[in-house]
Amino acid sequence: MGLLDLFSLQGTLFAIMLVGTLLKKIGLIDKNGKRCLIDLCINVVIPCNIFRSFLIEFNWSILQSGALILVLSIIIQIICLNLNRFLFNGYPEERKKVMKYCTIVPNSFFGNPISEGIYGQIGVLYASIFLIPMRIVIYSVGVAYFISDSKMDKRMILKNVLTHPCLVSIYLGVFFMVTQIKLPTVISNTVYYIANCNTALSMLIVGTILADIKLSTVLNKDTMAFSVFRLILLPAVALGVALALGLRGVSLGVGVLMTAMPTGATAAMFAERYNSDFIFATRCIVMTTLASMLTLPIWSYLVG
User: Fold this and answer.
1) Rounded to two decimals, what is the model's pTM?
2) Does position 147 have pLDDT exceeding 80, yes or no?
3) Which candidate in 13, 130, 137, 194 could, as Cys together with 48 as Cys, close a disulfide (CB 3.0–4.6 Å)?
């Protein structure tokens, strides 16, 4: 995809985000409506999109590249977890929790449409594999950042990880890709039609999140510093690790771009649920999302 095509894609995604913001502002989507959209996207639309990406002709090169992307993602998560041990120690406790969580969680609502727009179905497949370690970390270490270990139900966390709809769709997708079993047309068409809602619905959700905070309060030294870390430094590390692992082409691009995504929307949800600094979490989401409009084309150009 050329640079002009990428700007066109980002412009389209941004326009859909603005529609979501407008719908939230005028009250057509309220807080409960936003929650329903998020649940629908996470539990139905994204899993269908992931599953569809695996319905391709199986070959070993895809499996090998997928394995390398998984290794890259694991290494990035390990690096992030170790950086979190000391990087934010100078911040107030509640803000530090948020920044730690924001470090380990890229925005899959944004990442999947970008990967699909640039690389097609294979981009979604690789992005889905890349997100496996992140989804595991979210429900384990991510939760632990906000609550004490004594309050954590480790069995429930394991259950949530293993039965997460996005991971279940990967299990099923790998099975059907390897066995090459053909689904009945009615089922495959149903999956395809639901999967096609992913980009629009994901961007509408991001827009509703942006609507919840005044842009004038977003720009401050903490959000700016974190944006540089999230959008520039981490992807640079990912690029170095990916090249060292031998990733090239689509797999290299997806690995770097997924690391370069803005902060995930769950940061604000978790912060609010566990009485942490959810206002700062929302500011980080908004700041990194807006700044990524500039940084993502640069990273896309660099990884070719």
Assistant:
1) 0.83
2) no
3) 194
